[in-house]
Design a protein that fits this description.
Helix content: 40-55%
Shape: globular
CATH architecture: Orthogonal Bundle
Number of strands: 4
CATH topology: Arc Repressor Mutant, subunit A
Strand content: 5-15%
Number of domains: 1
Structural class: alpha+beta
Distance between the termini: 13 Å
Order of helices and strands: HHEEEHHEHHHHH
Number of helices: 9
Radius of gyration: 16 Å
């Protein structure tokens, strides 16, 4: 059974105009969805601590992304964008999750360990509920269940099936691993 959060991500994808995404071509164009469907500008920023509202704590150095709803922007770490494009896409989708599920007037900032927890992360580990929900939304947006299942079956058993799926969906290995466990 699909969760409410997964359903919300599917509704967002269903509402994307055909001229922007035909519901089949991969990877899902998350930058364009943020811009054209939600009016959010995605910016790659070297130092996310410069954003208005970010706490002045040492942990702020570990920010992956943040949502600034008052100015309609998603900021992502430029360093992560250069080194891990799949993580960048997940961060954008995660922030879209906050926009769709938790929006308020204040900034929402997401630390690296919250946006992409280690693969051995146990669901019972204490994590803010909003972060887990934004992760679920992001995974469903980037890797729609029906398309994951279709491509998983199409590729069939092979030594590089996992890498092919990551490349096709533009996803990190950690995100793909968690998504496969959920939908396959």
């Amino acid at each position: 059974m699909r969760s409410e959060i997964e359903q919300r991500a599917e509704e967002v994808l269903a509402a994307v105009p055909d001229w922007l995404w035909n519901k089949q071509t991969l990877p899902v164009p998350v930058d364009e969805i943020a811009d054209s469907c939600f009016g959010l500008w995605v910016r790659e920023v070297e130092d996310l601590r410069s954003a208005p509202g970010v706490p002045e704590i040492e942990e702020a150095r570990g920010l992956s992304g943040l949502l600034l709803p008052s100015i309609g922007e998603i900021w992502v770490s430029a360093l992560e964008a250069r080194e891990w494009p799949g993580r960048r896409r997940f961060t954008i989708s995660h922030e879209l999750g906050h926009w769709c599920l938790h929006r308020s007037d204040g900034a929402v900032w997401c630390r690296k360990h919250a946006v992409d927890p280690p693969e051995d992360d146990v669901p019972t580990r204490s994590r803010p509920r909003a972060e887990a929900e934004a992760d679920e939304f992001a995974a469903a947006l980037l890797m729609p269940a029906r398309l994951i299942r279709r491509h998983y079956e199409r590729i069939g058993p092979s030594d590089d099936r996992f890498q092919q799926l990551c490349a096709t969906f533009g996803a990190s290995g950690a995100a793909m691993s968690r998504r496969l466990r959920r939908v396959i």
